[in-house]
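Why run this: before we spend reagent on co-expression, it is cheaper to look at a predicted model of the complex and decide which construct boundaries make sense. The entries below are exactly what would go into the expression plan.
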Amino acid sequence: MTEVSRDRTAARPAGSPEPGEDWIAELTSDGPRRDDALRRLHALLLRGARFQVSRMSGLRAMVGAAQVEDIITLAADEAMVAVLGKLATFEGRSRFTTWAYKFAVLQAAVELRRQAWSHREVPLDAVPQLAERQPSPDQYAEGAELAHAVRDALDRVLTPHQRRIALALIVDEVPIDVLAERLGTNRNALYKTLHDARVRLRAHLALQGYLTPSPGETR
Amino acid sequence: MTAADRPFTTEALSQLTTDPGPWLSCDDCFRLADRYVEVLLSGTPDPADELAAMPTHLAGCSACAEEAATLLLLAGGDGVDPAGALRRLTGG
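The model came back. Tokens follow.
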């Protein structure tokens, strides 16, 4: 039994519409029919938020139990607003419940990452050097030479901004939402920086003979 | 802890040099995620190929991947073994 199924206390599986159920019609109707649909939608979003948080055990342990419950509730509430505000954009290309769940999952994940890192420093002022360590025997076998080439490429082919973002996201493992908040930017912009950094690194490493470009990848 | 005193792990090496694939923003990944996980769960390819950039994006963006995996499990529900779909999430 998965955590999802354990989380379901109702007889009807989450995400499965009742016979004849039409979420859009019910959510855009009036009176008790709409009230009931809103209640069921909020329960679904709570379930989605709780499941997302349950899967982030490392970060969950960094915040208190009461705060975790607040995060779940807040995420479900914010997802409710988002879903209702975007009802007109639902194209029916997936089940409504899958479409709705993603708002709760996103809100819960972003909020837990933010809360878990709220008291942690994100070193961004310096441009740190990567540790020069003696590779283990395994690392020798798996490409110590490549590791050295990547270290060198980080310094030579990336801009200071690309290097800082790549190291923060991948080496320091700062969650992308947290980094975006600290830098006053957004997930898209940071991922674009990382994407461009990878393109540069791979092109350089391909020219040096350390890797083979994928089909369709331009040097 | 900063990058200066962190080990340069094999995982970090792999993540730094992974093929980023065609550009897909995190917003577009979110827009397509519900359809993508249902296509994976159904086991049938997307006829419009609109989802072609999703595996490499999810392989390169740990936050989007974490959220997409949760969505896949929620969408799969009971009676569906999600293991295969989870493997295919990032093109595996």
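The CA atoms of residues 72 and 78 of chain B lie 12 Å apart. DSSP finds five helices and no strands in chain B. Bring this page to Monday's planning discussion.
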